[in-house]
Specification:
Layout (H helix, E strand, L loop, with lengths): L3 H5 L5 H8 L11 E5 H18 L2 E4 L7 H8 L7 E4 L2 H16 L13 E7 L5 H8 L7 E5 L9 H7 L3 E6 L15 H9 L9 E7 L11 H25 L9 E4 L2 H5 L1 H5 L4 H4 L6 H13 L4 E6 L7 H6 L21 E11 L6 E4 L3 H4 L11 E4 L11 E9 L4 E5 L15 E6 L2 H5 L4 E5 L13 E4 L5
Parallel strand pairs: 1-16, 2-9, 3-4, 4-5, 5-6, 6-7, 7-8, 8-9
Antiparallel strand pairs: 1-10, 10-11, 10-15, 11-14, 12-13, 12-15, 13-14, 16-17
C-alpha cells in the first residue's frame, strides 16, 4: 500500500536502485554514499537479543538510527514471539506497518507475559498535530498496538482524537527524567502527582487512554567511558522507575491492575548487560565493578516479585559509531569470547568517499575528500577532535584498530579535509586522487540521515566478495 509519506518523500523504485548497484564493487560507485556491513549488523543484533534472553527481560528496539525494515528484522530476531518497537517519526511507523502485519500473520503478535499485541511506541511526547496521522496508522493494527509518551497533564486533552478515529484506547507511558533532562518528569516533582491524577480521574483510566508503563532514556550515558559506568546508570534508571511505580501505587492503591512496564535504556546502558549475560567469562567479569552484577540481579528479582515488568530499549547498537566506541560500554560482538570492548570491527556503517585533491606542500600533508557535513554530520566525539576516522580499507597502511591514521580534521558542507590522526607514527599512508575511502562516522544516526539508502556488503563472505554490493536497504524519509 502506498502511504502518504511515500507520496510526499518519494524514492526511486527498489528495482531501479538494485539494477544500478547490485553486484558492483564499492570501488565502482560514485561518492559519497552510505555503506552498511550486513554481517556486523547481524552480530550486533544477535548479541543484544541473547543478552536479554539470558537475563529474562524484554527488549524493544528503536528504529530511528537505520529507518529500514531490513535492520528491524535483525533487531526483532527470527526467534522472537513478539514485536515491540520504538519509532521517533510517524514516517518510521508508516514504513513498518506492512512488516508488522506480516509478523502478525506469522503468529508473532502475542506476548504472553504482557498479554499484548504487536506494539509501536511513538518515542517522543506527541505533538498534538501528530495524533490524527498516528490514529490513521493505528487503524491498520489491532487494538492495543499503539502507545505514546506523556510528561505533562495538558497533553492528555489532545489524545481523545485517537480513539475517535480508531475506536480503541491509546496506550500511555509516563516519560520519566532520570538525569538526561531532555524530556520527562521527575518522580519526586510536584507535577508528578498532578499528571498521574489526570491519567486516573476518579481512580480509573481515562476513557480514551490506558496507562501502560514508565519510560526513560539515559542519553547522558554517552558521557561514560566504561561498562561499569554505563551499568551504574542502568541500575539508577531501573531504581528510579521503581520509585515512580511505587508513587503511583501509593496515589491510587489497588487501581492499577495490569503489569506496569518499566522501559529503560540507551545503547550504552542497554548493551552493558552483555557483560553480565557473559558473567562467567573471566575477561568480561572484570569489566564491571565488584557487586554490580549482583546489584542488577537484585533489581531484576525485585521487579519479578511485583506486578512490574522490565523492558530494555536501544537504537544505535546495530550500527554503532565512534561516539559509542568512546563509551566502551559493551563487549565486541566480533570477538565475544575474548571479552574485548567494542572497536571499529563492530561498526557497521561507513561513508564511502574519495580523494579529490592532495596538499602535500602544507606543513602537514592533507587531502580533500568528497564528504562533508552533509554526508558525515557535524557531531563531535569525546575521544578525539575530528569528524570521522578513515578506515584501513583500500589504504596501504599499518592499521591500528582498522584505522588508516587519517581523520576528517576539518569539515565544510560538501567536502572534508583529511589530517593525520596518529601522532608519533611516522609511516602515514600516502593517498592519491581518485582513491576510494571509507570513513567511520562520529554519530551513525546523523550520518545515515543524509542518504536515501544504504549499499549493503557482507564481511562474512569470501574475501574476494566482501566489497561486492549484495543488497540495497532503502531508508524511510520525512517525519
Amino acid at each position: 500500500m502506498t502511504s502518504i509519506h511515500q507520496n510526499l518523500y518519494p524514492t526511486p523504485a527498489r528495482t531501479e536502485i538494485l539494477e544500478n548497484y547490485l553486484g558492483k564493487k564499492l570501488q565502482d560507485v560514485s561518492t559519497p554514499t552510505a555503506v552498511v556491513d550486513r554481517a556486523i549488523v547481524r552480530r550486533n543484533c544477535e548479541q543484544m537479543l541473547q543478552a536479554c534472553r539470558a537475563l529474562g527481560c524484554s527488549f524493544r528496539p528503536h528504529v530511528k538510527t537505520h529507518k529500514t525494515v531490513e535492520v528491524t528484522r535483525f533487531q526483532v530476531g527470527d526467534a522472537s514471539t513478539n514485536v515491540h518497537v520504538v519509532v521517533s517519526t510517524l514516517a518510521e511507523f508508516d514504513c513498518l506497518v506492512d512488516y508488522l502485519l506480516e509478523c502478525e500473520a506469522q503468529g508473532k503478535s502475542v506476548n504472553q507475559a504482557l498479554n499484548a499485541a504487536i506494539k509501536v511506541l511513538y518515542g517522543i511526547p506527541a505533538p498534538p498535530s501528530t495524533i490524527r496521522k498516528l490514529a490513521q496508522l493505528g487503524t491498520r493494527l489491532r487494538p492495543g498496538s499503539v502507545s505514546v509518551l506523556v510528561d505533562h497533564p495538558d497533553q492528555l486533552q489532545h489524545l481523545g482524537l485517537f480513539k475517535e478515529i480508531t475506536g480503541y484506547r491509546l496506550l500511555v507511558y509516563i516519560k520519566i527524567d532520570t538525569g538526561y533532562h531532555r524530556a520527562g518528569i521527575t518522580h519526586d516533582s510536584s507535577q508528578f502527582p498532578h499528571l498521574v491524577s489526570a491519567l486516573f480521574p476518579d481512580g480509573h483510566d481515562l476513557p480514551c487512554t490506558e496507562f501502560h508503563g514508565l519510560y526513560s532514556h539515559a542519553g547522558h550515558s554517552y558521557g561514560k567511558s566504561s561498562p561499569d559506568g554505563a551499568m551504574e546508570l542502568l541500575i539508577q534508571e531501573i531504581k528510579t522507575l521503581q520509585l515512580a511505580s511505587n508513587c503511583i501505587g501509593e496515589l491510587f492503591p489497588g487501581k492499577v491492575q495490569q503489569r506496569i512496564v518499566l522501559s529503560v535504556g540507551a545503547t550504552p546502558t542497554a548493551t552493558s548487560i552483555q557483560y553480565m549475560a557473559n558473567h562467567g567469562n573471566d575477561h568480561i567479569e572484570h569489566a564491571l565493578k565488584p557487586g554490580q552484577a549482583d546489584m542488577l540481579g537484585r533489581c531484576l528479582r525485585d521487579i519479578h516479585a511485583t506486578k512490574d515488568f522490565l523492558e530494555l530499549h536501544a537504537g544505535v547498537y546495530p550500527f554503532l559509531d565512534l561516539q559509542q566506541l568512546a563509551t566502551e560500554a559493551s563487549p565486541s560482538a566480533s570477538t565475544p569470547s575474548a571479552g574485548l570492548a567494542i572497536s571499529t570491527h563492530d561498526v557497521a556503517l561507513t561513508v564511502l568517499t574519495e580523494v579529490a585533491s592532495l596538499y602535500n606542500e602544507r606543513d602537514e600533508h592533507e587531502a580533500l575528500i568528497s564528504a562533508g557535513s552533509l554526508a558525515l554530520g557535524r557531531e563531535p566525539c569525546k575521544s578525539y577532535r575530528g569528524w570521522g576516522l578513515v578506515s584501513d580499507w583500500n589504504v596501504n597502511s599499518h592499521p591500528t584498530g582498522r584505522s588508516s591514521c587519517w581523520e576528517v580534521g576539518r569539515i565544510s558542507q560538501e567536502h572534508g579535509i583529511l589530517t593525520q590522526h596518529s601522532s608519533g607514527l611516522n609511516d602515514i599512508p600516502e593517498l592519491h586522487v581518485g582513491q576510494k575511502l571509507r570513513v567511520f562516522p562520529n554519530h551513525a544516526c546523523i550520518a545515515g540521515a543524509h542518504f536515501g539508502w544504504y549499499l549493503v556488503v557482507d564481511s562474512d563472505l569470501a574475501e574476494e566478495k566482501r566489497d561486492e554490493i549484495v543488497d540495497v536497504w532503502i531508508r524511510c524519509r520525512g517525519w
